[in-house]
Automatic annotation (TrEMBL):
Recorded family membership: Belongs to the short-chain dehydrogenases/reductases (SDR) family.
GO molecular function term, any single one: oxidoreductase activity
Name under which the protein is recorded: SDR family oxidoreductase
SUPFAM superfamilies from the UniProt entry: NAD(P)-binding Rossmann-fold domains (SSF51735)
Length: 171
């Protein structure tokens, strides 16, 4: 179901307020997609949406808050006709030595990187299914393939990377 106003389709990008997400939103707009930019920092996504134009909209959403994703999905359906592409990009990196003092950080990372991706996919699933052709893209990391000492919150001896674990689960 491609909206008549959007020849290439409608792309939703989570974590579109900076870095890879903002760059992906720009590229998708340049390729003719109408883009919905999601992130917590509304001022940033609003600025990117205004810059890229082509009907782009900015929607404040936290991927750890399902209600905010449901509200975002409602807006995408109502204002843009439904998503044909979902880019699960929102994420946090946890670098440095692993230890008990990082327990809360580790939990947060799993909530954003893994559960946030699962929840966004689940919330937009009906729009993907309704589309004649849909793509879901998950941004992971090489940290999901190998553990680097001192990187990805890695215990130096065990070779286990908690950042890598969240990425590995996505891969
Ligand atoms: N850059 C790299 O070298 C690299 C390497 C491996 C993997 N990655 C992964 O690639 C993705 C993008 O990375 P980046 O380098 O572009 O990082 P970044 O500039 O820090 O961007 C992260 C994005 O995630 C959003 N975000 C964080 N928590 C969120 C939440 N709870 N709800 C919604 N959005 C949230 C941030 O927006 P708000 O703060 O405005 O919500 C921001 O837009 C991430 O998943 C990252 O872990 C990057």
């Amino acid at each position: 179901m491609t909206d008549s106003r959007t020849p290439a389709g409608v792309a939703v990008v989570t974590g579109a307020s900076s870095g890879i997400g903002a760059a992906t939103a720009r590229e998708l707009a340049a390729a003719g997609f109408t883009v919905a930019l999601l992130a917590r920092r509304l001022d940033r996504i609003a600025a990117v949406a205004e810059e890229i134009g082509n009907g782009a909209i900015a929607i404040e959403a936290d991927v750890t808050d399902r209600a905010s994703l449901v509200a975002a999905a409602d807006r995408v359906r109502t204002e843009l006709g439904g998503a044909t592409v979902l880019v699960n990009n929102a994420g946090v990196a946890l670098v440095g030595p692993f230890g008990s003092e990082r327990r809360d950080d580790c939990r947060r990372m799993i909530e954003v990187n893994l559960l946030g991706t699962i929840t966004a996919t689940e919330v937009f699933l009906d729009q993907s299914k309704a589309a004649a052709h849909a793509d879901i893209v998950n941004i992971s990391s090489v940290a999901g393939r190998r553990a680097e000492p001192g990187g990805g919150c890695t215990p130096r001896r065990s070779g286990v990377s908690t950042d890598g674990a969240s990425r590995c689960a996505l891969s």
